[in-house]
Write a structure and sequence with these properties.
The structure is a single chain. The chain is mostly helical and 183 residues long. Helix content is 83%, strand content 0%. The radius of gyration is 19 Å and the shape is flat. It starts with a helix and ends with a helix. The model has no long low-confidence stretch (mean pLDDT 91).
């Protein structure tokens, strides 16, 4: 199984999200666009890109299924479990993941733009501390079996819903951070 192409698309959108706030934001503000207008316009662009890219990934997955994995039983666009359902589930999951990665990149760019390198390092360390706290909590409560059971029993549409809620939270958090960003 090779899914490097999908990972590349998501990482590309993460980098685009970072660059949209660190490189293009000053240019947009220099042209007289308001912060609100820039953020909402970027969010609308990402929404449109998510729809189109999600549909493209769904069509490519359909071609992959129809050709028997490109004639070699490959799974390039059909990632087992998460992108292995009907076409509408594949589209919804791809759409949400694309928006999530771009939004996460925007958040990094906004943190850097607002608080510079010190704030960015603090942001990264805070995320690492949250992950370490979860690992410590699961370890101290001896809940690794339950933790693993959750991830082996959760259905892909449920996970897509959780990721959609996280994407909305990232978008709203980015909007509030954007309002106080200096250039």
């Amino acid at each position: 199984m090779y899914t490097g192409g999908l990972v590349t698309i998501y990482v590309f959108l993460l980098v685009c999200g970072v660059l949209s706030m660190t490189r293009e934001l000053p240019f947009g503000l220099m042209l007289g666009v308001s912060r609100r207008g820039y953020y909402l316009g970027t969010a609308l662009l990402v929404l449109a890109l998510g729809i189109v890219y999600g549909l493209a990934l769904t069509v490519l997955q359909g071609l992959e299924r129809a050709s028997g994995g490109w004639g070699f039983s490959l799974h390039y666009f059909r990632v087992p479990w998460i992108l292995d359902g009907p076409w509408y589930q594949t589209w919804a999951t791809s759409f949400v993941l694309l928006l999530l990665f771009f939004g996460y990149g925007m958040w990094y760019g906004l943190v850097y733009r607002r608080w510079s390198v010190v704030g960015l390092v603090t942001f990264i360390v805070a995320q690492m501390l949250v992950v370490l706290a979860v690992v410590a909590l699961v370890t101290l409560t001896h809940s690794w079996t339950a933790f693993g059971h959750f991830f082996t029993t959760v259905q892909a549409p449920a996970l897509t819903g959780v990721l959609a809620a996280l994407t909305i939270a990232l978008g709203l958090g980015g909007y509030t951070t954007m309002r106080r960003t200096t250039i």
